[in-house]
Amino acid sequence: MRLIKRNFLYQLSFLPHVFPVNCYLVEEEKELTLIDAALPFSYKKILKTAENLKKPITKIVLTHAHDDHVGSLDALKEHLPNAKVYISERDARILNGDYSIDKEEEPYPLKGGLPKNVKTKPDVLLKDGDRIGSLTCIKMPGHTPGSMAFLDSRDNSLIAGDAFQTKGGFAISGQRKLLFPFPAMATWNKEEAVNSAKKILPYNITLLAVGHGDLLENPQNQLEKIING
To answer: Which of 47, 65, 158, 169 has the highest CB neighbour number within 10 Å of its CB?
Structure first.
């Protein structure tokens, strides 16, 4: 595992040089918020990192319900029984094993690694604009129908899950990069993904944290290029 810190954000990257899968710890005054649960074996390093920071993980927030983002969820919940689990109202259905699509989501089927037999049930179903500590929830459908990103009001950093990727080249979900095509292959609706990317332009993001790839600092110019290109 590779650990990188930027301001209030810690990026935990598993298999960083082969197939990077990232999750994040957001530091609050007295506690930590975990964003995404990475791979099934990731929980040990996540718990160890929190132990080293000497703050408890009190919230587990999921950007979306693909299995490489919820892999350690059950193990983490077993070790952190008091931590509340947050996910969008829409992707909670996927987490619970319901892979159906709504009429307004047709004709696009769900794609990617859909979780099976997840025991943990979410405690809080998120909606656009909800607050979690220093984070504001931003609805960003595209990769999945209920994908969400989280904006830290303290420094305008954005944890965006798979709405974007930086591995293999910077791209919006659904824009295939030959060196790392997997997020595009797992995207439900690429047109919605572009619309969601446009939604964050006014926020003047200072740091973009994604599910697959390195942190991207001062991404505004690059965001505009991939949206308009």
So the answer is: 65
Is the CB of residue 123 less than 8 Å from the CB of residue 86?
A: yes
Q: Which helix (H) or strand (E) element contains residue 58?
A: strand 57-61
Q: Contact, 137 vs 82, CB < 8 A? A: no
pLDDT digits (tens, 9 = 90+) for 38-61: 999 999 999 999 999 999 999 999
Other residues' Cβ atoms within 10 Å of the Cβ of residue 29:
7
For the chain, how long is the longest CA-to-CA vector?
Answer: 48
Please give the domain boundaries of the chain with CATH numbers for all domains. Answer: 2-228 (3.60.15.10)
Q: Are 60 and 78 in contact (CB under 8 A)?
A: no
Interval 117-131: pLDDT, tens: 999 999 999 999 999
What's the CA gap between 9 and 77, in Å, rounded?
21
Categorise residue 81: left if φ over 0, alpha if ψ from -120 to 50, beta otherwise: alpha
What's the CA gap between 228 and 126, in Å, rounded?
30
Cα atoms found within 13 Å of the Cα of residue 214, Cβ hemisphere only: 8
* Cβ neighbours around 119 below 10 Å, total: 8
Q: How far apart are CA 155 and CA 151, in angstroms?
A: 9
